[in-house]
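User: Good morning. I'm curious how dinuclear copper ion would be positioned relative to this chain. Could you predict the structure with it bound?
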Amino acid sequence: MAIHIDPLEKRWIFVTAGLAIMAWSMTLYFAAVEDIHPPSNVEVIDSARLHLDSGVGGGEFMEDKLGVHETPDGLVVTLVAARYGFYPQHIELPLKTPVKFRIASFDVLHGVHVPFSNLNTMIVPGYISEITTSFNKAGDFPIICNEYCGLGHAYMYGMIKLVPKNKFNIIAETH
Ligand code: CUA
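Assistant: Good morning! Here's the predicted structure, ligand included:
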């Protein structure tokens, strides 16, 4: 026995199914052809041992290794997100230069967002978030946490000072 479906209902089933198929195809197209996808980097770290030089991660996120580094592959920023701040809390970076951020959480889930840039990703405890971007707007910008992480969430911050390339001096950086 065939189920009776109202013709109007039937029409809307096709409309919603069509919309869903369209959304899936767009996601597939942009992922496969345009290589656009959320930042992903499956690299694990032991959040409880970030401060030690042993264990998974080999001490990359120890306190005295945080901040901006010049490497053969360009500038790398090593950041720790913890309740309630980003450490080091003040960093200086040059404009229009690719910068690779490597961020780990010390405790719970955090997010990182810098206004007027596309630096925006989750920081999942146990994983290293890696994102490469460059900045085009000079000035002081807050680093904002955009995942609710506890009572101090609204006060969790860091600061990025973006300066023209010729004014950037990695030695003058203060933590
Ligand atoms: Cu960290 Cu909200």
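The mean pLDDT is 88. The radius of gyration is 21 Å.
Let me know if you'd like a different ligand tried.
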